[in-house]
Predict the 3D structure of the following.
Amino acid sequence: VQLVESGGGLVQPGGSLRLSCVATGLTFSNHYWSWVRQRPGKDLEWVSSISVGGQTQNYADFVKGRFTISKDNLKSTVYLEMTNLNSEDTAVYYCSLDRKGTTRGQGTQVIVSS
């Protein structure tokens, strides 16, 4: 299994980014997908998940209303659309096969700073 995240970068407070994660080595459409993140000096924390069928999305309270998870089975890609970013969102973001980040990619760095 290989998970490759991209789309991170430096963004000003209030800005937006779209993260992508391409998955290979598994049947993408058969899996529940999550995004987790690790803020500087903190443990991994769950951000969002999407169900196997894609009909159900769940979000941590601290991103609810600002982030949107989606996926494209044909592209084997899961996305995280992030809006109204603030400094507390500065972190390395990983896509994962579960909420704990047990199987995750190398991550993509997001820095929110003016």
